[in-house]
Write a structure and sequence with these properties.
By secondary structure, this protein is mainly α. Helix content is 49%, strand content 6%. Strands 1-6 form a two-stranded parallel ribbon. Strands 2-3 form a two-stranded antiparallel ribbon. A two-stranded antiparallel ribbon has the order 4-5. Helix 1 runs parallel beside helix 5, helix 2 runs antiparallel to helix 5 and helix 7 runs parallel beside helix 11. The relative contact order is 0.15.
Length: 367
């Protein structure tokens, strides 16, 4: 994931007057934060519904489909209008927001498109922040839905992706396919649902603290905040365990290609080969052993990352158990939330270091 840099320098906060005639930075910030949270919730939930339907063959994909895009666009327009109605450019300057969208020095992919957006009006400011946040949220979804990562990121998982902030570590790449069997698709649905709920809940708690004047350090040290975050984490853990049982993550789980009668099988390199070349039926959670489809020894599996993609060094943390998977969802969500909040709160919320950089400050590319 590319590193988000904090913009500094007095020259970067010069704005032209735009938007409503009044000036009320406090009202502006209290409009920006919850409006963007509404955008994020809609963006994530629309993708979840689409991906879960695609996984079981109810829709052809790719996601987001037209229905999901319409939901997102409708909320987009409402969010932009609300921010434009509550903020002036001097408000945004007072709050410390930069006068451009170059939150990061990038040359390709969606992040370069975001960086090039103009910020001369409150509406353009809203579009700028939504662009960066959309790229981060797409990355998060690509990690949660490992078997659809390439689809979600528009064909590329690195910094050239037209949809996602780049994933740090993607080798080995999980099988890219629909998880048609109820066991895997139900588990994947629970990972997506619980992961999204956790991100939204954690961000909402921290945003509320930030709007009350807290910094990242003071909010994380607040006992009430800690309790709320612990509850969110417990719900996430329980939600994933409920449907995934003892499934362990595996980028390419074994399968059995059943042919003929009974449990007889034929070796097949891929599931597509089994169906389209051999004319067999794919049996998940089984392997072809001495001509018979036998249950897979050990725990059943879910098509997911073998190493956590969110990492400053690759390969990321090795994932062998369901608890490892949950820990990866934790660390990924926490890092992405930190990146989202450091854009929204211009002081007291340092950006997480990335790509080996020790800096957490925006850098003005014009300096």
């Amino acid at each position: 994931m590319a590193h988000i840099l904090r913009l500094v320098g007095a020259a970067t906060v010069l704005f032209v007057l735009s938007g409503p005639a009044h000036a009320d930075p406090v009202k502006c910030q209290k409009t920006v934060i919850p409006s963007l949270l509404k955008f994020k919730k809609t963006y994530l939930k629309a993708h979840l519904k689409c991906l879960d339907a695609e996984n079981v063959g109810k829709i052809p994909g790719p996601c987001p489909d037209a229905r999901a895009q319409l939901k997102i666009q409708t909320v987009n327009q409402k969010v932009v209008a609300k921010i434009a109605g509550a903020c002036t450019m001097p408000d945004l300057a007072t709050l410390g927001y930069p006068a451009n969208c170059a939150f990061e020095i990038v040359s390709t992919g969606i992040e370069s498109q975001c960086a090039a957006l103009p910020v001369t009006t409150p509406s353009e400011f809203a579009e700028c922040l939504k662009c960066w946040k959309g790229a981060e949220l797409a990355e998060y979804l690509a990690i949660l839905y490992a078997s659809h990562a390439v689809e979600l990121c528009g064909g590329s998982l690195d910094e050239t992706s037209p949809a996602c902030s780049d994933l740090d570590c993607t080798t080995p790449l999980p099988d890219q396919r629909n998880l048609g069997s109820p066991g895997q698709s139900d588990c994947q649905r629970s990972i997506g649902k619980a992961g999204v709920k956790y991100l939204v809940a954690r961000e909402k708690v921290l945003e509320k603290c930030g709007l009350a004047g807290g910094t990242q350090a003071s909010c994380l040290a607040d006992p009430a905040v800690q309790l709320a975050l612990q509850k969110a984490e417990a719900k996430k853990n329980g939600g994933i365990h409920k449907k995934c049982g003892n499934r362990d993550p595996n980028p390419s789980p074994p399968f059995c290609c059943r042919t003929g009668t009974g449990n007889s099988c034929t070796a097949a390199a891929t599931r597509d080969d089994c169906i389209n070349v051999i004319g067999g039926n794919v049996m998940e959670d089984k392997t072809c052993n001495a001509g018979n489809c036998d249950p897979t020894p050990g725990n059943q599996q879910i098509t997911w990352w073998g190493n956590c993609p969110e990492s400053n060094t690759c390969p990321g943390t090795s994932l062998a158990t369901l608890d490892d998977l949950i820990a990866c969802v934790d660390s990924t969500a926490d890092t992405i939330i930190d990146e989202l909040l450091c854009i929204q709160f211009t002081s007291g919320w340092p950006c997480p270091p990335g790509d080996g950089s020790a800096s957490g400050a925006f850098v003005d590319p014009a300096l």
